[in-house]
Amino acid sequence: MPTVREDFWATTSNKQLNFIQHVKTLLKQNGRAAVVVPDNVLFEGGAGETVRRKLLQECDVHTLLRLPMGLFYAQGVKANVLFFDKKPASETPWTKKLWIYDLRTNMHFTLKTNSLQRSDLDEFVKNYNPDNRHQRKTTWKEKKAPSRPALAHALVNAGCRPPALSPKGRGCW
Questions:
Q1: How many CB atoms lie within 10 A of CB 152?
Q2: Do the bridges between strand 59-66 and strand 79-86 make them parallel or antiparallel, or are there none, so unpaired?
Q3: Three-state SS for 24?
Q4: How far is residue 118's CA from residue 131's CA, in Å, rounded to a whole number?
Q5: Which residues contact 161 (CB under 8 A, 6 or more apart)?
Q6: Residue 144 sits in a domain of what CATH number?
Q7: Which residues of 127-144 are buried (b: 16+ CB within 10 A; e: fewer)?
């Protein structure tokens, strides 16, 4: 049964989409959030598209961390961390660029024998630069989406295999 709330952008039975909407309603102006979501949140049509478009409009969605499979969900389920800041009302969308960091391509972790270690996130943490995101340095693991159409395309298709592989074998967008 779909969740119906007047403060949500879309009515859906998708719990992950409802959670994103709920988190956004809890944030104060300029509040920050990082939400773990499965890939279907990034490419689902209908309510998913509505939620993504409104999130891009009303928040600054600035970072997408693509996680290795099997970390938070069942083995084979692809997960991501979506970082965004709530912003005041504006006629133009707040989201201008999306920094996509791929920790998934050619990375293999398991919960028991090869678990993700804090050191595996060191490069991401170093480059994340939350105090001044606009001065992030590009690495071979990420790319800034240059425009709103490219950003929408990136969010809609983030679950797809990257179009190019770096010499080290990780995707670069």
A1: 18
A2: antiparallel
A3: helix
A4: 21
A5: 105, 171
A6: 3.40.50.150
A7: ebeeeeeeebeebebbbb
End-to-end CA separation in angstroms for the chain? 37
Domain membership flag for residue 24: yes
Give the span between the Cα atoms of 21 and 172, in whole angstroms.
29
81 near 73, Cβ under 8 Å? no
Residue 34 structural domain = 15-128+136-157
pTM of the model: 0.76
Is residue 7, in this structure, part of any structural domain at all?
no
> How many whole angstroms separate alpha carbon 110 and alpha carbon 70?
7
User: pLDDT, tens digit, for every residue of 94-137?
Assistant: 888 788 888 887 777 777 777 888 898 888 888 887 777 777 76
